[in-house]
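ok so I'm stuck.
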Amino acid sequence: MPISERVAVVGVGHAGFAPITAGVSYKELTFEAAQRAYADAGVDPRTDVDNFVTVAEDFLEGTSIFDEYTPDQVGAALRPMHTISGDGLHGLAASVMLILSGVADVVALEGHSKVSDVLTLDRIVDFAQDPVINRPLGLHPSYVAGLEMRRFLEETGTTEEQVARVSVKNRRNALANPAAAYPGATSVEQVLASAPVSTPLRAAEVAGRADGALVLVLASERTARRLSSKPVWVTGVGWSQDAPSLESRDWSDARYLRLAAERAYAMAGIRAPRRAVSLAEVNDVYAYKELQHLEALGLARPGEAGMLTEEGATERRGDLPVNVSGGALGRGNLFEAGGLAQAMECVMQLRDEAGERQVAGASTAIAASWRGVPSSTGAVAIFAA
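replied:
not stuck anymore, here's the structure
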């Protein structure tokens, strides 16, 4: 199989998103998403797809070697398939490498969340803590986020009101997203009056959990041009990790995302991201993370992201639209599938298919993911029309 010079997304499909999907299993959600993606791409998984990738965390799924549980619903029975124990953008990077290396011509990438079935989520997340030093303390994930938010505010001069505006913006953006689980009209005052979670973090600044599934179909340049009249090119990918322990990381700077972005920009040939990027979909599981991640991506200078939000620059009609999909705060926290939701939004925007939330003239989009507390792992993908 010839080595491809470029890779494109040629099909996307999703099912959900909702706080609870009591009537269906994750397999049914995944099947629905896969059918939509294959129809969008115009491919038959049994004959046209060379390789399949799924992203999942075995602890959240409740089963080990999870790729054994997804082939049937994506049409991958007896076909090459593997699991990435990471976020959706890590799976996207793996899919890109399969194609660029010539191993595959067409790859189907799947991710899902059925977090409503998880009864002890905080206890499961606790397994990510250091087993000797941190885990015995019984730290709630949001407690760690509150500590990091406090440090970020003090280091950058960002205000609590500016963080609250992120939640207001993203939940309002979600009103234009039919797939969003938590759309709503709220105010800065209401956000600041919501219940404290871990000072200064408040309940309205934490994304609610959501079920859902997504499938993306990627193809080599030659095949992409044959399959799609509007292929969206993946021009850069990067991923990185900071220190795993709470004691040895930089609490004010999302260094993991800064390093991932540097690699993605280098691959895409981007030297000035603020001028090159039309819109950004960044992880905002906690509202302050949107601001921290914008600065790590080089889309805002240190300490500037809060002011840009306050001035309206990150609104859909602003100079730098951010999370016009509603982000995790409006769409819902899809855990490992969250990066694929970001990627899907970028693809829809660049295909001019985002409906009411369409960003006019979008030509380049960036998706940036984070695996959540207490990790320091992130990934970045850059898309171009």
